[in-house]
């Protein structure tokens, strides 16, 4: 098990949240804090880089959905980048691929 670590970097109009490790039921505080920080600093967009996720269960998907909804309710938007491998398959199988804005990774 690899605990989730997050790195939040603010740019002028948006923020980038990089996730590394396992996104699961033990992760809500890290994700919630990051989203609240983005909203509190007045940024309108959050890019979530999932390239280094090694695992994501149903609770992890729920956390991503909640983050997206919270940002949308605050007038912002969230996108996922570097979605591939297991996460891409899980999003496809569950139909949640349509629930997120996913920016294609450069080839």
- Round the Cα radius of gyration to an integer and report it: 13 Å
Task: Give the overall silhouette.
Answer: globular
Mean pLDDT comes to 92
What characterizes the major β-sheet?
5 strands, mixed
| Number of DSSP strand runs | 5
Helices, by number, come to 3
| Protein structure class | alpha/beta
Low-confidence runs = none
Helix-strand topology string:
EEHEHEHE
Helical coverage, percent range: 25-40%
Proportion in β-strands: 25-35%
Q: Give the strand order, joined by hyphens, for the main sheet.
A: 1-2-3-4-5
Measured between the Cα atoms of the first and last residue, the distance is 29 Å
Describe this structure in words.
The chain is α/β, with parallel strands linked by helices. 36% of the residues lie in helices and 34% in strands. The protein is built from three helices and five strands. It has helices at residues 28-40, 58-73, 85-94, and strands at 5-10, 14-23, 45-56, 77-81, 101-103. Strands 1-2-3-4-5 form a five-stranded mixed sheet. The model has no long low-confidence stretch (mean pLDDT 92).
Structure in a nutshell:
The protein is of the alpha/beta class and 107 residues long. 36% of the residues lie in helices and 34% in strands.
Strands, helices and their partners?
Elements: E1 5-10, E2 14-23, H1 28-40, E3 45-56, H2 58-73, E4 77-81, H3 85-94, E5 101-103
Parallel strand pairs: 2-3, 3-4, 4-5
Antiparallel strand pairs: 1-2
Helix pairs in contact: 1-2
């Amino acid at each position: 098990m690899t605990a989730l670590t997050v790195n939040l970097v603010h740019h002028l109009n948006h923020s980038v949240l990089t996730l590394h490790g396992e996104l699961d039921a033990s992760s809500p505080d890290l994700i919630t804090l990051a989203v609240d920080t983005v909203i509190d600093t007045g940024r309108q967009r959050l890019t979530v880089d999932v390239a280094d996720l090694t695992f994501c269960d149903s609770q992890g998907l729920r956390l991503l959905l909640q983050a997206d909804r919270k940002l949308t309710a605050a007038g912002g938007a969230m996108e996922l980048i570097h979605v591939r491998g297991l996460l891409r398959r899980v999003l496809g199988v569950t139909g949640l691929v349509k629930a997120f804005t996913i920016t294609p990774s450069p080839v």
